[in-house]
Amino acid sequence: MLTNPANQRKHTRFQPRQVIYCQDLEGNVIGRIMNLSETGFMLMSEHPAEVNESQILRMDLPLTPPHQITATCETIWCQKSSYSQEYGIGMQIAQIDDLAVIALQRYLGDDNKATAA
């Protein structure tokens, strides 16, 4: 689904109705996802991230049954929040396996789980 060309996103972002935490490979929570699409997401974190940094991240999608996806993500932007002590971080999904894509599409397609942001 294409969005307004002014925001340059390929896919519509959805706001999760449940809290979805993003973790590193050791299981440390690095932030909570504020919006999500097939190709990226924005999270809020207590710690800043380096732009252009790649890392492997995990998130538990609240599906039935629950599904954990793992993806290589690149930090596109990071800025201090204007309404909290956290940082907003824009992440692009650089690499993800086919089963994780299917789970992500299933989650994003369920109106009870996410709303267009």
UniProtKB/TrEMBL annotation:
InterPro entries: PilZ_domain. Gene3D superfamilies: predicted glycosyltransferase like domains. Residues 7-108 form the PilZ domain. Pfam families: PilZ. This is PilZ domain-containing protein.
